[in-house]
Every structure is written in structure tokens, then in C-alpha cells.
What we know:
Distance between the termini: 16 Å
Radius of gyration: 16 Å
Strand content: 5-15%
Number of helices: 8
CATH architecture: 3-Layer(aba) Sandwich
Helix content: 25-40%
Shape: globular
Number of domains: 1
Structural class: alpha/beta
Amino acid sequence: MKKVLIVETNVQKYAGTDKPTGLWLGESVEFIDELAKQKIEVDFVSPQGGFVPLDPRSMKYTNAAIMKVYLDKNFIHEGLVNTKKPNEINPKNYNAIYYTGGHGVMWDFPDNKELQEIASVIYENNGYLLSVCHGIAGLFNIKDKEGKFLISGKKITGFTQSEERLAGKTHVVPFFNQEEAEKRNALFQKKRFYKEFAVKDGRIITGQNPFSVRAVAKLYLEELETCKQS
């Protein structure tokens, strides 16, 4: 079975501030934990490659399952210290690309053309585009061969403006996810703030917030099982 490519941020602080951000830990490790149950392997990539900072706030939401993956030497080495650069990735090796969140992605995901090209190839090869929370930013500018936004006309979700307000970040974020999605004619879906919610539209699967990681993974695994049986 082909691997899944996990995309993580290199951004260490909110632009124009000294306040730290980075990868929301659970959005990577809970996804890995679900895939590991089906023995699906993953690789890690970031816009610059190398070191991936952790959003310190995400460490308040750990549990035994998260800590088990976080303390794994392979995850530390490959997922936090030595992530691959986009030019080291062969998209043909992957059945899906999964964009993790944390506020940092809002600055280094949307305009990274190398990652967009990787995602396009995976999708064109009947693969899947997955994201959770702020990771939706990685989907915004992916286009098909005709130059059309892939999310156009698709039901997707991501961290909402209400959730930004509750997080106290409306004054520092560069955009709001729903607005950007709707500019590209996506059909933005949402439910109550900080509740698990994931939506699938074709081969695009997205989750609203950090509590939706496992729901995204399970929808993807259900797709794989359906494909096996067909």
C-alpha cells in the first residue's frame, strides 16, 4: 500500500509578533496513530524541510496516545527534526497528502507551489487530499490541469472565525478560512465550535478543528476499505 504524506509548518511565530506558534502536535500524531492501526506508513514534508516547531499551546491537549507517538524516536527524527523538503518528494509514492494545522501554516502553506504540484499529482493519480483545522490553507491554491481550483464546488471545512475569536487570534491571522474558501467557490461547512466535525466530498476530506483529526483519518481509512472491496 502506498504511503501518506504529512505536511507540517516551519513557522515559529505569528507574523509581526514574538508569540510562538508552530505545528499543533495532536493534528500530526493522532492522525499517525489512526493510520498505524492499519499499518499505513507516512512520510513528513515541510515547506523548507528540516525543523518543525511545536505550538506550545498544543501541549496542553496531550494524552497517553499523543505522548506515545510524540516520544517515538522515529517521529522525533523524521517528523520534527528532519522533515523532507518538497523537492525530495516523489508524489507517485503516495496515496494521500495530509495538511496538518497550527496557526503557522497560514503563512507557509497557501503559496507554496512545490507542495501544490505534489498535491495535484497525488490527486490526479486518484489519491486523496486531506486536511484538518488551519491545514485547510494548504488546499486553497491547488489547481487541476485546467487551472481550476480543486476545492471549487467542493464541501470542505476548517478552523472557523468563531473558533479564531475564542482562541483570541482574530487580530493576528492573515485571513479567515471560510472567506478564503468561498473566494474559490468552495462550499464551506461548519458545526459548533470546538466539536468534532469532518466532511468528505469525493477524494477531499477535511476536518474543522483539532478535535477532528481522528474523524478525518477514519473517513480516509473507510475510503481505502471501500476501494479494497470494489
